[in-house]
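Blackboard transcription, Thursday session:
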Amino acid sequence: MTAETEMRITEKSRIKRAPTRAVYDRATVDAILDAGLLCHVGYVIDGAPYVTATCHWRKGDRVYWHGSAASRMLRTVTSGVPVCFTVSHLDGIVLARSGFHHSVNYRGVTLFGEAVKIEDEGEKLAALKDLSDRLTPGRGEELRPVNDQEMKGTTICALEIDEGSAKVRAGGPVDDDEDYDLDVWAGVVPVTTTLGAPIPDPRLKPGIAEPAYLREISIGQAPKA
Amino acid sequence: MTAETEMRITEKSRIKRAPTRAVYDRATVDAILDAGLLCHVGYVIDGAPYVTATCHWRKGDRVYWHGSAASRMLRTVTSGVPVCFTVSHLDGIVLARSGFHHSVNYRGVTLFGEAVKIEDEGEKLAALKDLSDRLTPGRGEELRPVNDQEMKGTTICALEIDEGSAKVRAGGPVDDDEDYDLDVWAGVVPVTTTLGAPIPDPRLKPGIAEPAYLREISIGQAPKA
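(Written on the board underneath:)
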């Protein structure tokens, strides 16, 4: 697979509203995907739309998500149908001098394509390790191996990062010229995702120290380099 | 409209995976909707799924969202087609003693139905006031009136809170009995949404104080009673 530097722009993926906020470079798309833990996956059953929130992770040119092999969402999206995959971060509330120009700062990615089911056992194990490493690098080695029943009960699917786009709004309000003289507060209230202090399970075995990686988890912001 | 206390359960809205996490009471559904600012709306164009992230607000038995009258999303969802509306909150990362039982704590709502366009001008103005009051009660009165062009350029749509469900996971990991003896840290890393200190616009008129409501904004958690 060649490393692409730009997303493929199609009638589906071209941003139509507020096109100045559109971003098609892969570095931006990847950073937005990597900052997220929760995605929303859209699919169609009997002509009707369904949206399922689930956890995702990225590796190279693909995003992955997984769940129970019995999941209707996973059975549907791996059956060769079009999928819409989105990750969105809310970064701020933008208060303008008129109601009309109020806005939010955000980073979002939308991908289109067909998801594929990862069938190969080695590939599945590698993908599960990537998921674990995304949040808690090294934890995979501490855990017991995945057993056959768990493996059989888990479906993992992947979608190429190819047709899609990012949309980003940042910065302060942009008001109509004549409104700058109004006696109204204007600015931005920042919104961030915060990770709290880890809460040990009441049944935690005595003597087990809190792993260092728990304090390194990052969601919402770009992961530390 | 009668005040419903339960969601309408249908083949679409009945939770199939992890049904013990399903919640159908309206109080829970409303609290999850009210805690959110960002929703994801699913719709179908030419048989393909699209998911758009946008801001929503609730009033009584309806959720609302809005945008440019030229928005393809809004033109589509107000054309009498099925819509899937979702709001999701990530509340924690659940670290279990096996990879398989890792999970996330979350609160999510999914609604199904057909959205309607708010055509009446008075109703539109009232809806915009509700949006403003959701985050910044009282700010609506400080702003200049919406002008005709802005009114014409804005489409607001509404969806009944009727067919749908909530799904909630909370608490610590649930491990296989034989895994509780493993030497692995287990517990929850809480995830919260945090509002930062307001950043005044560089062009803010001198002498304008920061409104008190800016420090009262709540997202992600249930709004203060």
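Lecturer's comment: Chain B has a mean pLDDT of 94.
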